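FAQ: What does the model actually see?

It sees only this:
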Amino acid sequence: GADFAMATANSGGSTSAISNWLISPAVLVKNGDIITFYTRTVDNPASGADRLQVRVNPVNGSADVGKDAASTGNFSEVLLDINPDYLLEGDGSYPGDWEQFTVVVSGMPGKNAKLSRIAFRYFVEDGGPAGNNSLAIGIDKFNFISVNQ
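And it is asked to produce this:
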């Protein structure tokens, strides 16, 4: 359909560090499980680079993200960091058209599945309506595949 999750520069005020979270329900997660999703920013951004992290909570099934924009709480494992250098164009920049990403879960303790959560973090430093970074991102068609190991 036409529905998708979206976060914008208005997630922060004036100039700010944006830390906006979209967190899955608690699910059983283990190393090797697969996450797929589509994401994009606006067409041909001239300013305002975007960034997205995919994280997992290897500790427990809580949704603890910490107390401020610099904190990540129990979501200590970064599975993917899209555009950490805030590029506006070229390789490594945020896609301007819907692009599929596939992530393999790692960093989970032990071999057995553990109750956990997957999180998308719209994390943009020097963001907000008056900042140098951040425009808008969309996330669509999230899929979590538990694999047998």
